[in-house]
Specification:
The protein is 41% helix and 18% strand. By secondary structure, the protein is an alpha/beta fold. The strands form two sheets. The protein has a seven-stranded mixed beta sheet with strand order 7-8-6-9-10-11-13, with helices on both faces. Strands 2-1-3-4-5-12 form a six-stranded parallel beta sheet, with helices on both faces.
């Protein structure tokens, strides 16, 4: 069985397991009242979260769930998410699905749980993990590790001059440090505090040779942020040949800065695996990306809250982890020995769990 087929089978099995825990009755245990669920994403502009919202809508329609969608105004907008949580409590929703914008939402999540709402984090595990009832997410450290291993293999012993284009520099979010630290670990670079970006030695050895880290710059996960961050890095060292990016919009911005500067041949790697991102791999704008599955996160989340609200069992974390792992696959058309991957064609068939 191919890697792509395996991922589809695992995702389908997970959906069946969660759905099987409860009945198909849409009522909340009595009458005709639908189970009410709130989905609160980081923003409503990033294609990743737009796709997650669409997946949740389809799942809610299929399950007879009343879905309310809210979001922060931008990545990092904790206040907007706090208000959305307060609104869900006031409505008497059965549960909340949330991609947390930062630790500032943790007290509001606690308030929701104290009020009897079941809270599931999607994509971004909070810190600490037990802030929510459970998280459905990509193993973000593994996602970073995959693109790090691929990059080290592609360099084939050449010196690595690295730009790290992260998410924030003013708040600590698990998805940010897990991806960054996973990438460095995959490269074979020693990290210190795995919950902190930027404290590793700026020069040393990676698994194939020597490295220099030129910069850690925030992008806010946006294309314009990626371009600005890359421009700042290039002023420090125009010879950058490895660019790690937190997500694909940031990678697109980085590529625009590289092109404007006349820099050619840099390896640009990322994490997301959306349909646009997979096309960018095919076109050579991104050399490799780790694909995640937000549609599955949303579907499983909607079904889990309905299951619990109708008397079924609560979902369980993946063995050995403190969250439910929704899967990850490296997408590249330049495979590396010893690094499992799928092609951009296979990635297009899977992008974000659309299949």
């Amino acid at each position: 069985m191919s890697r792509a087929a395996t991922l589809l089978a695992v995702a389908a099995a997970a959906s069946v397991l969660v759905a099987a825990c409860g009945s198909d009755d849409a009522s909340g245990g009595g009458g005709d009242k639908k189970v009410a669920v709130a989905l609160i994403t980081k923003n409503s502009t990033n294609p990743f979260f737009v796709t997650m919202q669409d997946g949740a809508k389809k799942a809610a329609d299929a399950e007879g769930v009343k879905l309310t969608i809210a979001a922060g105004k931008a990545d990092g907008d904790e206040a907007g998410q706090v208000q959305a949580i307060e609104d869900a409590i006031a409505r008497g929703d059965a549960g909340i699905l949330i991609t947390p914008n930062g630790p500032g939402v943790n007290p509001a999540i606690k308030k929701a749980r104290d009020a009897g709402l079941y809270v599931i984090a999607l994509d971004t595990p909070p810190d600490p993990a037990n802030t929510v009832d459970i998280t459905f997410a990509t193993d973000n450290f593994k996602a970073g590790q995959l693109i790090g291993k691929w990059t080290a293999a592609q360099l084939a012993g050449k010196p690595a001059t690295i730009a790290l284009l992260d998410l924030f520099n003013d708040k600590i979010v698990s998805v940010d440090y897990n991806r960054d630290q996973g990438f460095l670990t995959g490269m074979g670079i020693d990290t210190k505090d795995k919950k902190k970006n930027g404290d590793e030695d700026k020069t040393g050895n990676y698994s194939g040779g020597t490295y220099t880290i030129v910069c850690n710059e925030p992008t806010n996960g946006a294309e314009d942020g990626g371009r600005t961050a890359m421009e700042r890095c290039l002023t420090k060292n125009p010879a950058i040949n490895v660019v790690y990016t937190i997500n694909e919009p940031a990678a697109v911005g980085a590529q625009k800065a590289l092109k404007a500067a006349g820099t050619q041949g840099a390896l640009v790697v990322s994490i997301d695996g959306g349909c646009n991102g997979v096309q960018q791999v095919k076109d050579g704008l991104i050399n490799a990306t780790s694909q995640q599955y937000p549609v599955k996160m949303a579907e499983l989340g909607v079904r889990a809250i309905k299951t619990i609200a109708t008397g079924g069992q609560k979902p369980q974390v993946t063995s050995g982890l403190d969250f439910f792992d929704t899967g990850v696959a490296l997408v590249t058309d330049k495979p590396a020995t010893g690094v499992e991957s799928i092609t951009s064609t296979e990635g297009a068939n899977l992008c974000w769990g659309k299949a």
